[in-house]
Amino acid sequence: MSDSTAPERPGPPLALDDTGAERKLYWAVTDCLTIVRRELTHLAKQPSMVAWQLGFPIVSVLLFVYVFGSAMDVGEGADYKSFAMPGLFAMTMAFGFMNTAMAVVIEKERGITDRFRSMPMAPSAVVTGRGVSDVVQASFDLLVMAVIALVIGWRSDGGLWATLGAFGLLLLLRFALIWIGVFLGLITPNQEAAGNLFAVAFPFGMISSVFTPPSMMPDWLGAIAMWNPVSSTANAIRDLFGNPMPAGDSWIEQNALLMSIVWPLVITAVFVPLAVRRYQALGR
Amino acid sequence: MGSSDYSVVAEGLRKRYGDKVALDGLDLAVRRGTVLGLLGPNGAGKTTSVRILSTLLRADGGRAEVAGVDVRAEPARVRRRIGLTGQNAAVDEILSARQNLRMFGRLYHLDHATAWRRAEELLAQFSLTEAADKQVKGFSGGMRRRLDLAASMILAPQVLFLDEPTTGLDPRGRSEVWDAVRSLAAGGTTVLLTTHYLDEADKLSDRIAVIDQGRNITEDTPAGLKRAVGGDRLEVVLTDPADLERTVKTMARVTRGVGPEQDEEALRVHTPVADGVAALTAVARELEERGVSVEDIGLRRPTLDEVFLRLTGGDASEAPGRQTSDPTERRPADAPSAAEPSEETHA
Fold this sequence. Notes:
- Chain A has helices at residues 21-45, 47-67, 80-109, 112-117, 124-151, 159-187, 191-195, 198-206, 219-227, 229-241, 251-254, 256-281.
- Chain A is mainly alpha-helical.
- Chain B folds into 2 domains: 3-226, Rossmann fold; 232-300, Alpha-Beta Plaits.
- Chain B has 11 helices and 14 strands.
- A 6-stranded mixed sheet of chain B has the order 6-7-8-3-9-10, with helices on both faces. In chain B, strands 2-1-4-5 form a 4-stranded antiparallel sheet. A 4-stranded antiparallel sheet of chain B has the order 12-13-11-14, with helices on one face.
- The longest helix of chain B is centred in the middle third of the chain and has 16 residues, at 171-186.
- The A-B interface holds A 1, 3-4, 7-9, 11-16, 18, 27, 30-31, 34, 37-38, 41-42, 45-46, 109-112, 114-121, 125, 282-284 and B 51, 54-58, 67, 76-77, 79-82, 84, 86-95, 99, 103-111, 114, 117-118, 135, 151, 154-158, 188.
- Chain B: Its main location: membrane.
- Chain B: Its EC number is 7.6.2.2.
């Protein structure tokens, strides 16, 4: 096909060739980066939004470490601050899917998604661009939280590689949740309805080992909390940070590191096809 | 005439959502370089048609070609030849106008230099240069729409789809958008415009296709539509009730037509006329000779509102709103019954 470079009327600007497998791949990456650049410009232009999004984890740190912290006893004489901080990192990642879903809903509602779909850009870039920028933003969130954590006296005793590995696991969880976010964003009719996603996010983030060990919960709730992917990540990074981890004897708690990798892979494997299906259904 | 004379051709388009039939065998043809107004009440299938033609939606049946390319078989090629401005101004609110156009330019696969240059050209073309670096969030509705149009025009597409481009705009914004669309059409872009504003279709379109319940009702030029439904009417408004009878007789004789109708309260006499100007001159002369005191005399052409109601057989409550009132187009006391609503609209 030579039509992309053959103007039909005098004057129109020449689009570059985007046919053929190699060029398609090139544009899939380039379009993705164009979208990422757009998202990062959003962050730069809206510092108050960023502050707002960080508000919840920061308030949580103050609330749980200082307000409830003195009354919290997670056992084994562990310092609650050291127990809670990794949990708060994991919780922030868990709530991240809300940002993804909200962004998807807004783009859909405002017609931006339709505009993109009517353009010759790579269709995958709409989603990959969103994914990459969400991971970049999550890294920034983690950086800010880590600085706050250091300020209030939290430390990682796990060494450089284990510490970096822990942050990698957090981002892996966030990456997997992008697909849940995209899927939920596509099935959510409008922004008002998207507010209801908190009803999903809250238990997902909280009924976990983030704030208290599941072994201290009633059995049935503890079982749910133990098997929550957020718990696996939280426990795995506690281990990597060398923070106290009063884990129970259950298989799921003993294999937190393994499961902190398996869970995100399972979530991705399930929700990528679902999200793609929903995206294609926009055209039906 | 070959199919290459047409930039948009749709034949027998069908689409249903569950139980609801959105398109029921719709045909459309837009001549290259012209503006077709797609007019119909809410739910008539206007947006569905545009979504199918712009590759956003897959039809259940029928076929469509846009810029000579089959929409279903080669959507990617169609996308390089069309621009779409949907019901929302689909631009990025947080970016500036310039950033928007550069971004869309890149996503249309222009190289950096070309995308940057094209952004400047379009900012100038759509009178946005001054506001180029302001966040779109602060733009008026009309400015947003113009930016939206500019983004659709990045590749100078052969066909531009406009889905209710002025919905939600104030009168000033509407006229800004109308000017922009007119200049695009003058530049040779084929435009398919959906609207439920009759004056908008009237002002912008070369031809108007009226659709209802997913089917074609009729298609004609705006003037032809009005003529087909009502034809011209000669209307005389008197100052003295005593002149009514004489006037009716005079008009009946001059026009040799059906008996004129009179509205005694408004002191108005009106009758359908074939050759409007000749009848107007003759009646005016005769009335003057007879010393009839005339308050107003003129040819009245039915408004598109009347055309529309007649054709779709709808009642006034579901009629589209008319946004501006043109003082030269008065509503006749009772519209002529030349064209009955077509049967199928009552299905």
